[in-house]
Amino acid sequence: MTGGPLEGVKVIDLTTVVVGPICTRTLGDQGASVIKVEAPGGDILRYLAAGSRTKAMSGKFINFNRNKRSIVLDIKQAEGLAALKRLIATADVFVSNVRPAALARAGLDAAALHQLNPRLIHCGIVAFGAGGRYAGRPAYDPIIQSLSGVAGTFERAIGEPRFVPMVMTDHIAGLVAAQSIGFALFRREKTGRGESIEVPMFETMASFVASEHLGAATFEPPEGPSGDARLLSKDYRPLPTKDGFITVRPNDNRQAFAFFDAIGRPELKTDPRFTDPLTRTRNAADYFDVQVQALAERTTADWLEIFAKADVPAAGYNRIDDLLEDPHLGDVGFWLQDDHPTEGRIRRTRTPVTFGGGMRDATLPAPQLGAQTREVLAEAGYAAEEIARMLADGAAA
Amino acid sequence: MTGGPLEGVKVIDLTTVVVGPICTRTLGDQGASVIKVEAPGGDILRYLAAGSRTKAMSGKFINFNRNKRSIVLDIKQAEGLAALKRLIATADVFVSNVRPAALARAGLDAAALHQLNPRLIHCGIVAFGAGGRYAGRPAYDPIIQSLSGVAGTFERAIGEPRFVPMVMTDHIAGLVAAQSIGFALFRREKTGRGESIEVPMFETMASFVASEHLGAATFEPPEGPSGDARLLSKDYRPLPTKDGFITVRPNDNRQAFAFFDAIGRPELKTDPRFTDPLTRTRNAADYFDVQVQALAERTTADWLEIFAKADVPAAGYNRIDDLLEDPHLGDVGFWLQDDHPTEGRIRRTRTPVTFGGGMRDATLPAPQLGAQTREVLAEAGYAAEEIARMLADGAAA
Q: Nearest residue of A to residue B60 by CA position?
């Protein structure tokens, strides 16, 4: 069997920037045929973020838009909107990260979409769920990090709120959207019917944070303060060694006691602060102090050898660029190079998940703006002269 | 239609701590029937993390294990292992986060599982992919944060490597595992065949980080340094106002120019550093300086009103506990309370994603250790006397 698990699934992708493109890239990586519908100006991510060889193809855009074809439609023109609807009518999945009010104005609300294509799965990725007072507000990743408590976890740990230096909430919501589409595709095989899915970023991330940090506030009344003390320590970080950093995580009793032996502090095995997971959680600050003091005494390489022998979970520290040289990633063929048709030689990562039942075997390069406009319109049944007229009118480009 | 999209899917869950339980909770939340198979001592998360009313039911365990039933099997005993295999033989999905060598020793490698149940989807969540030199090493979330570059993004931003104060890589890999299972369930409807899936945490997170931060190093040779400068700034954080914090994200030109007007600096609209997204990315530090200076001048409430009028994306800042009082989350019914059969009154979050085709309608409370051992064995066809013997022998508990 060739092709990924989503082989044969046709996706119309009306999304931009990160949250939507991550969702549709995931679907494409797993075998779906993804048609990226862009406005005449193109996805803003083409121009954002550092690094570009030609003007509408930033490194970040390339990473988030492989395995897609691009069609440019001006859906403010009647013919452009009609073409989008024609594409949707024969698709399996339609993904949008447009505000719902704008979709409704274009005649693409849930009821209209169901009318157009009863088997369609529509996934609307929104910042805030319908029915709540923030619904319809604009949002980017840091807005969601700020509201969902992600930034707040840093204030507990280091005294000031911070964002994770990644578009993490977009990325996670995009993965959850792809997940939800998979579940709905499975259900459609049984029922024959499509459905509308709402993936709200704020609620998705509030759930993420709450699952981790409600802690004692899971109980009503609370049994103590919210938060997992081990994660909220100022020393929850790669710790300095004599020549760099190391991460060590002695978690269960065997690991903790082997760690105490390895650092030459066997007496701590009977210290009442550290006798079991619960006491080590309660005395997280002291447990970190022991680690900070000990680890500074030797080099990273020395410690890694010692902890490997003791079977204590430990690892070195990779900066972003170190990933390119990591020997394990080399072994598993993580880094690939392609010749992009317009951008030249580029690096990309292979899909990290392996499906024994078969993987997508050919990768499409991230498309130039509108590179497949003619091809996609022709596949949708438009005649050559209709396509030419749409291009002349600017309804397509 | 009642029940979630995965209604009717039977999942055998041989996982502990976070990465596996997040995967299977997601499947359960969406309607699957999840049987959590625990060793006699139980999932260590029952005892970890702050907050507990009874001894084997921490707040974190409760959050990650709703919608599951628990059966205790000692798979080191022949009868216990036989029972696990009997459960797997009639399941749709088997999820493990056990090291592959241990699975193989128990006769649960991919070939044996396929023999046992050709329609089975086995998802093996591992720290490191097979075929690479780190394969089989023990790992916890901070190990993966350290190796995958997550911690490294903080060194670029604030001068020291740090972990995100959440078990973020476990959480994300768990979501990706659930996503992958959904895709494989969809494929199985077409092919009638199961498959084995490998979800390696390290590769999954290295892909996450690389997608965001390869940037100019996407190109070979690189067009510049890796990293998205906007995200790696020391000022990428909720910024101080006169009385608290605010997050503002003027991204496209309309938003940026409206922001300059709103802060009384209209002259910046023609400043060559800030004329378009690309120049604002290149001059990210200066753009942040403008924000830091201006925002300190007024209160959060004042700024939110001003930015709302100007349609500039902005939001306040929620600490973990503020989530409990957030008015939007109140509107959408995000927080629910249940009476847990042994733990009393608890809070939980509703499933953030909404499926128009129907949602799981009843929530199972996180189970006491082995609470459904008898029930699950009986469903698997064990007679009452067989169950009694297994309980007496300690093969089940």
A: A215
